[in-house]
Amino acid sequence: MSDKNKNKKLTYEEKRKKLIVKSNVLRKMVLDGKFNTINEALQHSYMQDDKEITEFNTFNQWKELGFTIKKGSKAFLFWGQPKKATRKQKDKREEMGQDDENNNNSGYEFFPLCYLFANTQVVNLEETRTERNEEQSNEIEEPNNIPDLPF
Prior knowledge:
With 151 residues, the chain is of the alpha+beta class.
């Protein structure tokens, strides 16, 4: 594995650890019945931090809705759909004396990160195209008096 890939993996793992910490704080509210899921609690938390946020979607969902993500925007972290364990992961757990019955996780081993963007981080694609066209037309000004050339 190259150094570049190692850095990406570390970054992913660091993000994952931060999300675990935040989720553990919110878990009590889920257990108390205030929220149905950790993701619902995370969404509420993010919306409390920025009152202008009303909606979250993936990059592709925003694209389908006719929006694009503003340059430099950082995604909000949520938990993705659980992934089933690979044979290798299951073998490793068995070697360590762990099994699904003891952990009560119904065969799921891994919850990936899900990257979502808020409505405050997007711009309408049509507006963006119109602005670009206006900028280009302003840059190319045709002169009023074009001299007749003798050829």
